[in-house]
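Hey team,

Filing this mostly as a record. A colleague (T.K.) asked me to run one chain through the structure pipeline before their review meeting, and I want the input and output archived in the tracker in case anyone asks later how it was produced. No errors, nothing strange. Just documentation.

Input sequence:
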Amino acid sequence: MAAPVRGFGREGHRLGPYSCGAAGNEHEERTMVVAGVLAGAAALAMLTGGGGATAAGAAPGGPGPTGSAPAGVYWQRVHARFAPPTAFIPSSAVTYDMQLVPAASEIEVEQTTDPSGTRVTARLTGLKPGHAYGMGVHTQPCGSTPAAAGLRYSSGSADGRTPGPDAEMLLDFTTDTKGAASVTERRSWNFRPGGARSVVIDGVRRGAANPVACFTVPFGPVAGPAT
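Output structure:
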């Protein structure tokens, strides 16, 4: 299995998100980063217990593929650089507003699911400094327009219309002076299989009507009751 991303946000050479070795130059590295997202997204998923097959991969918080996720835990981490919908090399991270989410800015999303619930962490770099963004998990993958991502995911409702903030996975954040941010949210429920497929960044907090970027994320199967 290909290795997940290493060294996000650290100085020095960075591997591509699904590569196992270093790129020979900056052009090669960028090509691996962007093209590797679509090719290798499914390879990051790790499911153990609950009748699923055990897959080797990095333990949560670990630096690389040194073992497998603990029994009963689903864990994954995906990373991409944003590109406009018309980019020659497509990316699973799409920006619709390059003032707020510049091309080549980066996003990493980590998911941990166990029988007690789901935790999602997002880390971003290269965005507009000191800006307050909204972000939430959506039901469909990204496309050439913001509408492609569909409605926000809502627990207990396949159509995404259940009211209340605790029914959604909201990840609002404010970037620092360098345009970076990290946010973590946890819910007591787990995603329905195939029900959550992207995160959408909004230009304002709780601003579902103002999407500025989208990242397709293969949110994984549940390790407990789905809602």
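Quick notes for T.K.: The longest strand covers residues 106-114. Residues 1-67 have pLDDT under 50 and may be disordered.
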